[in-house]
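Researcher: Next sequence.
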Amino acid sequence: MLAKLRARVKSTHIIDDIRQETFSRVLQILRSRGGVRHPERLGALVNAVCTNVFREGCRSRRYEEFPAEGLAMSVGDVVDGLISEEQRRTVRRVLGELPESDRRLLRAIFFDEASREEICADLHVDREYLRVRLHRAKEKFRALFERSENQQPTRPLSSRF
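Model: Next structure:
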C-alpha cells in the first residue's frame, strides 16, 4: 500500500492520512456483522479500500498537492527521485525484453492489480498453473534485470547531477 501511495502522492502527511483512513475503514468492516467472507482475500480488501479512499480524496481535492510542499524537498528526496526514475526506465526496458505472455502476466499482476481469477480466465489456466507461470516470469525478469543492472556503468553519485 505504501509503494502504491508513494507513486501517486508526494506528501508524507497525505499518505499517512490515507493509510489511517484505510485502516479505520477496514477495521469497521472487520467489526461489522458480516465481517470478511473470504479471509484469504484480506490483502485485496485493504488494497481496494485504499484505492477508494484515495479516489474520494482526489474528488474532494483533499489530497491535492500544494506547491509549497514540493519546494521543500531535501537533497535525499531528489536523489531518491533520480534513482527511482532510473529504475523505472530499467524496469520498462526489461519488460520489453520479456516474451509477450510473461510481460502480460507481470503487468496484470503488478501494474493492473488484476485478481488472480481474472488472470486465470484471461490466460485459460487454473490457479496452480498460474502460480507456476508467475514464478517463471518473475525469474526471467529477475535474471534480465540483474544482467541489465550489471551492464550499466556505475558512476559516483556526484557526477549524476
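Model: The radius of gyration is 19 Å. The chain has eight helices and no strands.
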